Amino acid sequence: WGVEPVITVELDPPKGLDCAKVLAGSRALKEAGAHAINLAENPLARVRMGNLALAATIRREVGIEVIAHVTCRDRNLIGMQSDLMGASLLGVTSILAVTGDPASLGDEAGASSVFDLNSFTLLKLLSDLNRGVNALGNPIGAGTGFTLGAAFNPNTQRMDVQVGRLEKKVANGARFAQTQPIYDIARFEEMMERTAGLGIPILPGVLPLVSGRNAEFLHNEVPGIVIPEEIRKRMAGKTGEEGVAEGLAIAREFIEAAGAKAGGFYLIPPFGKYEIAVELVSFIKQKTRKAEHRGD
Predict the structure, then answer these.
(1) How does pLDDT run across 6-51, given as a tens digit for each residue?
(2) What's the CA angle centered on 140, arms 94 and 58, to 5 degrees?
(3) 106, 157, 195, 217: which sits with the fewest CB atoms below 10 Å from its CB?
């Protein structure tokens, strides 16, 4: 295990104006030892509180780093540059650049997807803003100072295509990557082997399962998630506390097997249950302390 891995945890912005739960979760996770909070932007194309303003609030009130996801779906090129300069003003400096789920996936009748940019050109724009110029090359000042992240999906039959995409993202400025949830350690090891030459930390997504039904839904209905048959068998028929306990056991086994090979861990608590993530953060810290004690 050796060096302490970076631990980041995804929390959902609220659907309304009350952000007490996400602030409480951020505090509990900071106390447990998490290094950063991830905030998705209107995930599944459903309206939630603006994550850039929420990120600034969490940074100010809790004192923990926040990685704000920025999608290409909701803003045109003008609005994107304006909001990113505003994020810089608010002190939000860690950005995960993602394409975003299409508006048709959500429940907002009449909403349209913009997609003036994609994840590659968004990274290029962010890199330009860091250099102190806008999309037209006009000077904006000293530069924004963003740390840029990208998404990576290892759950595909064509891993080489995904590695090629990540290479392009790194060339456009990505300095770390976070993955879709992974449940297959062999797939994780293949991903780490194939991306080793890119020289950036890759944080595997860890989404603890809570029931047999939850496992089947994620495997069959959610694009980008593949759950091996043996894990679905372990979860089969389990619900309630038994389901949560088994899901946590599976997550711990993955984390232990991934160990020092991972650039860190991107924990995604199910249904916003940040207490589950707190348990996993504590587990990772405990593993690191034991390794330090042994002198590994």
Answers:
(1) 999 999 999 999 999 999 999 999 999 999 999 999 998 899 999 9
(2) 25
(3) 157
